Structure formats: structure tokens, C-alpha cells
């Protein structure tokens, strides 16, 4: 029997666009991954651990050294006081942490507030767990929620709210007043917040990432999810973290136990090393990425494109109509990859209902020459689009 939840879903836009880029030899500014190979010392540590370390099953909850390093990192960078032994679990990427959270906590019929644009994995996993998503639609240029939107979404059956901060694809770093508002509603409705904070290290000064967990009343009702893939620009590593108060943790740990049980020990050891020694990397990586963002924004501005504001992630967004593109985002993205050789992500793919169709997401974590060439190719795509739709 076909499963109605998963069988009706299309292939994710990230794989669709990367597949087209591979097939056509296009520049890939679609799926978010950096050109930079990541910190050499961390990769060397992983190689050493493969050759000389233990390659057998590590402890189910993660290597103690990594769980300690995660608690230490969040203490230093976000002033969080996490007990590594009872409040930190290592997962196989943030994706597994999300799956374990949804499968572990959601009971059939629970309402889960989810913001659109929504990361591709959330809705299928929430529904598979029996949850009923309540969508809140965010829109450009500011992508922020307000009290009216939240009060319309929260209700008697609300059990969870999922927050992605910093927000992929928008690059929004939630301001403290927005987090305080969301915390107020979570407390009032006795809801648990699932905070996907994988982009927490990829934030450009003067913006500052603040964890919702640190807001009044949230310490005991937040699941905080992180990813070494984003912290170190090693997206294929799939080492993630689940942090939550001891009362929330048992079902999460059990779900993790049956999903993957554990995560490669050598990569865990290398991530622990990276977190303990990474102060320079964490200072320099966002600066280099901010420079890449500036580079792409300037090249696009020279071509007459209009860029939306953003303070974090690997992504910059184009306002298509303001840039002289009349086609909807998906049609333009397909034209750009097929006819001009540059892959992107149409943001409408990250809406289930009432999509925003005027925004194109570009990954700027690339070499300057690639960014410059991509801007030129996007201008070609715009020209081809004008001719085709004239
Ligand atoms: N959540 C968001 C918002 C992401 O952007 C990503 C990956 N880019 C993930 C989760 C998945 O992270 P991981 O690769 O660690 O599973
Ligand atoms: N998070 C990455 C992005 O937003 C994609 C991850 C994936 O392909 N599943 O581009």
C-alpha cells in the first residue's frame, strides 16, 4: 500500500537543483554548501581518528568528549548552562535530531506551529509523527512574525512551535523582541519550542544570534538543535546536537536510539576537537562569508538586480520583480540553470500553501570568480526570460 504522506512528495528542491547542476555542468548556487574545504586541523583530526582511533560503535548518546565540548561551546558563545550528561545528545546531523524530536515528542493530533518558508524536512516528519501543522506565513522583505500572526496560530491544541533561527532561506537573524514575543506565547499556551539553530555560527556582525532557550520560561520547554556541518562548513559530515532539559530528553534519546543509534566516532572526535580549539575559526569564518555576500551583492547590483537584506546563513535572496524578472521564481530558476548555467533555489518550493513566488535564493559561500560569473549568467537568464515572455 502506498504511504499517502511520503509517496506524494516531490524530490526535494535541493537535490533537484544540484542534480540539474551536475547534469548540465552549471555553477551551483542552489543547495547550501561552501567551496571552502573547512578547517584543515579539524579534517586532519578526523583522518587521524579513522586511522588510529576507535572505529567501533561509540556510546549511543555520543562521545562524552563531544557532549562536553558542545556544552562548553554553548556556554562560551551563548551563555547557556547545559549539563552535558543529561542535556546533550549527539545525532547524525540536525536532520536526525529533528526526526528524533518529532517522533519522540509529538502525539497524534497535537498541533505544531510551523513558519513558512519551511525547511523541507519539517512537514513530512511532523505529519508522519501524527502532528497537525499550523502554518504561519512569513514574507519578504522582513520575514518577521508579529503578535497578531502568533495569536491567530496558537490555540487550545497547540503543543509545539518550530523555529528556524537564523532563518533559511531568508538569512533573518531573529531580533530579541520577536523571540521574547514567541517565548511569551509558548509559556502562555504551555507549548514546547523546537529550535533549529543550525545557522547559529553563520551570523554577520553586528547581528547577534540569541537562543530562544535563554528567554524567560523557555529553559525547560525548548529543544535546541545544532549542526557541526554548518559550524565548520563540512555539510557532508552529518554530526548534529540535541540539547534539552532532562524532563524532555528521554523520548528524544529513545527515538535517536532507534533511528541511527549512533554517529561515526571519528567525526565526533574531530568535531569535539574543533569546538574546543575553534575560537579563531568561529571569528574568521563569518567575516569571510560576509565578504562573499558583499561580493555577490555588488556583482548583482552592477547587473541591476535587487537584493533583500539578510544577516546570516550562506544565502542571499533576489527580489525578482524589482530586478526586472517577471517570470515566477521556479520558471526563472529552471531557465537560469538550463539556459544560462547557474543553479539557484526558488523560494516558493519552501512554502506548502500560498507561496511567495518572487524570491530566488543564491548560496554565496563560493569563490569570488564563481560569484562574479554567476551574476553575469543571471543577467543572461533575465535577458532570455524577457525575450521568452515578451
Ligand atoms: N535545518 C536547516 C534549516 C538547514 O538549513 C539544514 C541544512 N542546511 C539542516 C537542518 C540539516 O542539517 P544537517 O545537514 O546537519 O542534517
Ligand atoms: N540545508 C541545505 C540548503 O538549504 C540543503 C540540505 C539538503 O540538501 N538536504 O541548501
Task: Describe the structure in your own words.
By secondary structure, the chain is an alpha/beta fold. The chain has 14 helices and 13 strands. The protein has helices at residues 13-24, 40-52, 64-78, 84-87, 93-105, 122-128, 147-153, 176-188, 228-231, 249-259, 265-277, 279-302, 329-339, 368-389, and strands spanning 27-28, 88-91, 111-116, 132-137, 158-164, 192-196, 222-227, 240-244, 306-307, 315-319, 342-343, 345-346, 359-363. It has a seven-stranded mixed beta sheet, with helices on both faces. A four-stranded antiparallel beta sheet has the order 9-10-13-12. A hairpin with a 7-residue loop joins strand 9 (306-307) and strand 10. Helix 2 packs antiparallel against helix 11 and helix 13 (329-339) crosses helix 14. The longest helix has 24 residues, at 279-302. The protein is globular, with a radius of gyration of 21 Å. The relative contact order is 0.17. The mean pLDDT is 97. Bound molecules: 4'-deoxy-4'-aminopyridoxal-5'-phosphate and glutamine (GLN). Glutamine binds at residues 14, 31-32, 168. Glutamine (GLN) binds next to loops.
What percent of residues are in strands? 5-15%
What's the Cα radius of gyration?
21 Å
In whole angstroms, the N-to-C terminal distance is 47 Å
Unreliable segments of 5+ consecutive residues: none
Major sheet description: 7 strands, mixed
* Widest β-sheet, arrangement of strands: 2-8-7-6-5-3-4
Shape: globular
Secondary structure tally: strands:
13
Q: With helices defined by DSSP (H or I, 4 residues minimum), what is the helix count?
A: 14
| Distinct compounds present | 4'-deoxy-4'-aminopyridoxal-5'-phosphate, glutamine
Which H/E pattern describes the elements? HEHHHEHEHEHEHEEHEHHHEEHEEEH
Mean pLDDT across residues? 97
Structural class of the helix and strand makeup?
A: alpha/beta
Portion of residues in helices?
40-55%
Amino acid at each position: 500500500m502506498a504511504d499517502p504522506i511520503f509517496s506524494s512528495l516531490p524530490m526535494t528542491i535541493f537535490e533537484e537543483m544540484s542534480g540539474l547542476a551536475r547534469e548540465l555542468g552549471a555553477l551551483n548556487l542552489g543547495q547550501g554548501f561552501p567551496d571552502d574545504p573547512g578547517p584543515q586541523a579539524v579534517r586532519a583530526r578526523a583522518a587521524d581518528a579513522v586511522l588510529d582511533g576507535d572505529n567501533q560503535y561509540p556510546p549511543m548518546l555520543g562521545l562524552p568528549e563531544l557532549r562536553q565540548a558542545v556544552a562548553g561551546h554553548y556556554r562560551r558563545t551563548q551563555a547557556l548552562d547545559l549539563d552535558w550528561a543529561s542535556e546533550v545528545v549527539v545525532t547524525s546531523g540536525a536532520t536526525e535530531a529533528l526526526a528524533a524530536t518529532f517522533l519522540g515528542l509529538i502525539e497524534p493530533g497535537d498541533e505544531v506551529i510551523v513558519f513558512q518558508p519551511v525547511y523541507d524536512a519539517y512537514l513530512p516528519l511532523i505529519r508522519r509523527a501524527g502532528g497537525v501543522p499550523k502554518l504561519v506565513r512569513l514574507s519578504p522583505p522582513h520575514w518577521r512574525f508579529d503578535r497578531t500572526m502568533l495569536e491567530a496560530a496558537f490555540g487550545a491544541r497547540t503543543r509545539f512551535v518550530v523555529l528556524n533561527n537564523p532563518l533559511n532561506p531568508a538569512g533573518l537573524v531573529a531580533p530579541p523582541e520577536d523571540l521574547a514575543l514567541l517565548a511569551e506565547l509558548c509559556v502562555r499556551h504551555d507549548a514546547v519550542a523546537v529550535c533549529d539553530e543550525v545557522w547559529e555560527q553563520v551570523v554577520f556582525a553586528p547581528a547577534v544570534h540569541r537562543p530562544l532557550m535563554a528567554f524567560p520560561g523557555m529553559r525547560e520547554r525548548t529543544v535546541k538543535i545544532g549542526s557541526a556541518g554548518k559550524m565548520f562548513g563540512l555539510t557532508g559530515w552529518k554530526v548534529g546536537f540535541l540539547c534539552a532539559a532532562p524532563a524532555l530528553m528521554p523520548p528524544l534519546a529513545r527515538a535517536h536510539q532507534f533511528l541511527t543509534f549512533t554517529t561515526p566516532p571519528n567525526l565526533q572526535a574531530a568535531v569535539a576537537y574543533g569546538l574546543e580549539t575553534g575560537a579563531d575559526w568561529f571569528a574568521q569564518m563569518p567575516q569571510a562569508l560576509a565578504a562573499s555576500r558583499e561580493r555577490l551583492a555588488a556583482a548583482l547590483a552592477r547587473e541591476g538586480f535587487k537584493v533583500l537584506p539578510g544577516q546570516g546563513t550562506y544565502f542571499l535572496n533576489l527580489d525578482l520583480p524589482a530586478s526586472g524578472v517577471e517570470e515566477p521564481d521556479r520558471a526563472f530558476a529552471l531557465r537560469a540553470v538550463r539556459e544560462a548555467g547557474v543553479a539557484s533555489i526558488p523560494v516558493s518550493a519552501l512554502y506548502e500553501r500560498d507561496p511567495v513566488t518572487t524570491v530566488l535564493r543564491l548560496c554565496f559561500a563560493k569563490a569570488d570568480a564563481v560569484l562574479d560569473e554567476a551574476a553575469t549568467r543571471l543577467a543572461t537568464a533575465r535577458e532570455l526570460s524577457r525575450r521568452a515572455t515578451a
